[in-house]
Amino acid sequence: MKKIGFLSFGHWTPSPQSQTRSASDALLQSIDLAVAAEELGADGAYFRVHHFARQLASPFPLLAAVGARTGRIEIGTGVIDMRYENPLYMAEDAGSADLIAGGRLQLGISRGSPEQVVDGFRYFGYAPAEGTDHADMAREHARVFLEVLEGAGFAQPNPRPMFPNPPGLLRVEPHSPGLRDRIWWGAGSRATAEWTAEQGLNLMSSTLLTEDTGVPFHQLQAEQIQRFRDAWRAAGHDREPRVSVSRSIFPIVSDTDRMYFGHESRSQDQVGHLEGGLARFGKSYADEPDRLVEALAEDEAIAAADTLLLTVPNQLGVDYNGHVIESVLRHVAPELGWR
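Structure (tokenized):
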């Protein structure tokens, strides 16, 4: 059994071919798709975060809105770039959104990926400390964020406050109990997956790995997941971790599906260069349901994960993406024992 949700990058463009032509469209359609996904029986609505781009950027207003419109599904990010974040302000936003959603947030965070501008985090007022780099800065922001989510007081109260204070040091409010255990790290390598386990974070792995050993993508990702689980056990954490993978999966059950994704049946892994190193990109899955089931049954990383996020082409509109989610839940998931 697996939790199955969708992951939207929230692209928008004024092109006549796009169903999502403005930032307003992207946000409102994201809410509508989350509502539709819940009605279809999906388990999660996740959103990518990019800055300086025609995509979803500031996640917490959207997460709060989805939380107010839904009642069951998990609501998350995949992922928030911690280079851009004030960790204390983020803790306030996350606590608020989680309380609105009744404790359903599942926040994916990471050091970030290549962005649209050079060192965009500097425009947000952040710069690595001397002797460190942007990845160190992201992990330091994450460390503070996670520490604050624990809920312990740390701020010295004013002896003459405007309103009465509780005794002791003060914490960031609102505090949402349990949110710390629902934070995920987007890991692009095996070493980062091990670090993720050491921090007591859930593992979020996408269709991109920032390393290549020559084996198929799903096998390399499965090794990453196994190393994560081994490191988790070695760290002695007292709860079971969660692991998600994302995939582009399109059952071909209509002429419209065939028009959009029929060519993807020949998709293969790709190896390229990213930030000066090799990277391996996973293939898309698109085919008639019976052949799709056969192909997905061989994906070792999906088998190892407890959560599958379906990357959706959001510019094709809410109705079509609802159709894609429903097709996976109806024609694929039961045959593979995911439902």
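The first helix runs from residue 23 to 40. The radius of gyration is 20 Å.
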